[in-house]
Design the sequence.
């Protein structure tokens, strides 16, 4: 083999390595489907011990709507801390204790001395759409024997970049008359590196976007102390 041909082949090899480094293996991308993304999501979730993030929340029900930015902390088995840092009830804090199955909350600012204790299903601590605080974490879709997954057909939509993060996009389309809170479509943007959601949306039967959560400043397994979940 001539020296010139060897040089050409070596350059082609280096170009291929550089392409795969920058863009990934096309064969892997072609083999990605909804089931494989959900499997990666499930494995990532099972390995997580705790996480914290800031998330932007938008909710809509009829003419009512809410917008909030929340500080969120989660520790297994299901300790949850939420502080509203922008929006209605700014400064308010909420804790879910899995040992008592109770919600503990206090208002922000001058009314911080006002505290309540409630069951997780109590209307006082539900969102305007009836969402429960103890079901606010990423792993909710895998609870109760994958009950949510069984109500929806999963579909791989494609790949998108959000805030410089590469994601796989999957949709859950209702395949039965029974749905989760009359939601006919759920949509997840799964981060390709974390294998966890960075955007989550829900749509009703009128094709109205009724919930959107955007997760930012995500930290995984930072060793959150149980003292965090005390008010």
Sequence:
């Amino acid at each position: 083999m001539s020296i010139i041909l060897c040089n050409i082949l070596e350059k082609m090899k280096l170009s291929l390595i550089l392409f795969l480094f920058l863009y990934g293996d096309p064969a892997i991308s072609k083999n990605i489907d909804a089931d494989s993304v959900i499997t990666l999501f499930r494995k990532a979730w099972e390995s997580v011990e705790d996480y914290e993030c800031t998330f932007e929340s938008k909710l809509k029900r009829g003419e009512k709507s809410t917008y909030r930015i929340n500080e969120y902390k989660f520790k297994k088995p299901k300790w949850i801390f939420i502080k509203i840092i922008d929006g209605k009830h700014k400064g308010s804090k909420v804790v879910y204790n899995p040992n008592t199955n109770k919600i503990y909350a206090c208002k922000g600012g001058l009314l911080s001395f006002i505290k309540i204790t409630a069951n997780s299903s109590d209307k006082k601590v539900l969102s305007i759409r009836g969402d429960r605080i103890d079901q606010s974490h990423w792993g909710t879709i895998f609870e109760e024997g994958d009950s949510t997954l069984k109500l929806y057909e999963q579909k791989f939509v494609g790949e998108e970049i959000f805030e410089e993060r590469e994601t796989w996009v999957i949709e859950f389309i209702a395949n039965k008359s029974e749905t989760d809170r009359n939601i006919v479509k759920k949509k997840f943007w799964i981060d390709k590196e974390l294998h966890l959601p960075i955007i989550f949306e829900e749509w009703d039967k009128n094709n109205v976007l009724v919930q959107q959560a955007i997760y930012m400043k995500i930290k995984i397994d930072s060793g959150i102390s149980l003292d965090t979940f005390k008010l």
Remarks:
- The radius of gyration is 22 Å.
- Residues 4-9, 11-28 have pLDDT under 50 and may be disordered.
- The helical segments are 3-23, 26-31, 34-47, 143-151.
